């Protein structure tokens, strides 16, 4: 067999390109844990952007999309599969994912900080919140055995990281960056993440092997490789992240896929040891947050890696299923309005406490409520001009000391970038390896 041919594909072995679907932060909760939909009310009341009311349908729509698209590389999930690591949610989610595996499509998962040993795992029933079982790392591996662990060519002994062989010239490094070991009733869920020295050693050994054999590696972590936003980085960016940037740079890893932030954002990390080397981190937005995106990642050997998001077509899915729920049938509209109104109610009452008139508070809330869904879906570039010239935006100068003012500034700062598309060169013959190809078509 030609060494460059894919040995994992089922079907047309003439095609060397490999496609993946990337989705993250599904935050699924089983009806066994959210018995009467109480959690939905709780999330709505606290202004959470996650659409818990429809998370099950959104995930089913994604699964049908994956089956329809049949990506020959498989589905990659960058962690936070469950709401708060409930064992019943993991088990029920796996039952849903099984439909993909039954169609011969591979799945590769890494855990997120919410998934393992989470002391916030509760069963919600009426006014009651009853602690229920979460999962250990060993149980996580067992439940998702068919989602990467079974076919892994290397497994880390010190974490549940693994390496999956996709083809003769492409591996995925699926890294467990979570710090669940120290979770307890007082600190129920660690937000921050890091890789241990032992995992670094394990990873380096295999990245070295990959480089020697001219195998490309795409890495996947739950935590961000770089700071994506001035305010949202503590706990989100991996601790000592430059160490991983340098390791990737040394072994020619040019792309890391992450989740955790729930926003859609692309940013490079810069190596200080390998000249002109950038490593891109793509934070894919949460599937259950407006615009309910996933991404298609295409690996074209010797040529490029291409990443492009798509909006999950929940409306079409609901129509095809004969579902009569109007929110599902007009899901883009519902989803945007949900994000808008959740942001609005969170900010409006805080502004009223600031001695602002009701009129001013309304103007300011409306600006942020438009900007926030755009920030989460990586589309600020599409609306920033309208925001900038609006009177509503100018009113924000009245309260420069408030967190949300800094938040808006941090979003507007990166207004001109497209965070939904990236094409990186894999060509070594012209010296462009690792560079962005600006003609993204
Ligand atoms: Fe998450």
Automatic annotation (TrEMBL):
The keyword Mitochondrion does not apply. InterPro entries: Calcineurin-like_PHP, CNP_C, CNP_phosphodiesterase-III, Pesteras_lmo2642. Residues 20-263 form the Calcineurin-like phosphoesterase domain. Keywords: Hydrolase, Metal-binding. Residues 313-418 form the Cyclic nucleotide phosphodiesterase C-terminal domain. This is Metallophosphoesterase.
């Amino acid at each position: 067999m030609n060494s460059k041919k894919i040995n994992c594909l089922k079907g047309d072995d003439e095609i060397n390109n490999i496609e993946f679907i990337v989705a993250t932060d599904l935050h699924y909760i089983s009806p066994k844990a959210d018995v009467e939909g109480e959690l939905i009310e709780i999330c709505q009341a606290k202004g959470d952007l996650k659409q818990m009311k429809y998370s099950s349908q959104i995930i089913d729509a994604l699964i049908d999309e994956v089956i329809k698209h049949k990506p020959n590389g498989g589905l990659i999930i960058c962690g936070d599969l469950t709401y708060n690591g409930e064992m019943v949610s993991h088990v029920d989610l796996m039952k849903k994912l099984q439909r993909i595996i039954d169609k011969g499509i591979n799945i590769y998962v890494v855990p997120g900080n919410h998934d393992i040993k989470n002391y916030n795992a509760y069963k919600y029933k009426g006014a009651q919140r009853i602690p229920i079982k979460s999962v250990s790392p060993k149980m996580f591996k067992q439940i998702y055995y068919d989602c990467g662990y079974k076919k892994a060519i290397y497994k880390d002994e010190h974490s549940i990281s693994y390496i999956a062989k996709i083809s003769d010239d492409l591996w995925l490094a699926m890294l467990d960056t979570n710090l669940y070991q120290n979770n307890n009733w007082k600190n129920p869920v660690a937000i921050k993440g890091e890789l241990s020295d032992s995992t670094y050693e394990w990873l380096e050994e295999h990245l070295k092997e990959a480089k020697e054999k001219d195998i490309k590696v795409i890495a996947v972590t739950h935590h961000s490789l770089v700071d994506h936003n001035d305010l949202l980085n503590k706990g989100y960016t991996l601790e000592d992240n430059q160490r991983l940037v340098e390791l990737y740079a040394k072994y020619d890893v040019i792309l890391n896929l992450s989740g955790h932030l729930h926003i859609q954002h692309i940013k490079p990390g810069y190596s200080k040891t390998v000249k002109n080397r950038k490593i891109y981190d793509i934070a894919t937005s949460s599937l259950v947050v407006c615009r309910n995106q996933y991404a298609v990642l295409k690996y074209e050997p010797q040529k490029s890696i291409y990443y492009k998001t798509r909006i999950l077509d929940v409306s079409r899915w609901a129509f095809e299923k004969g579902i009569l729920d109007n929110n599902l049938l007009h899901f883009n509209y519902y989803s945007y309005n949900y994000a808008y109104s959740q942001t609005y109610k969170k900010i409006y009452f805080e502004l009223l406490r600031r001695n602002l008139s009701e009129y001013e508070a309304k103007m300011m809330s409306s600006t942020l409520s438009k900007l926030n869904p755009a920030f989460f879906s990586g589309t600020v570039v599409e609306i920033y001009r309208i925001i900038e010239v609006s009177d509503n935006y100018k009113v924000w100068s009245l309260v420069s000391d408030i967190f949300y003012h800094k938040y808006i500034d941090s979003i507007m700062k990166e207004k001109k970038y497209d965070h939904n598309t990236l094409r990186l060169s894999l060509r070594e013959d012209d010296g462009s390896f690792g560079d962005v190809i600006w003609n993204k078509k």
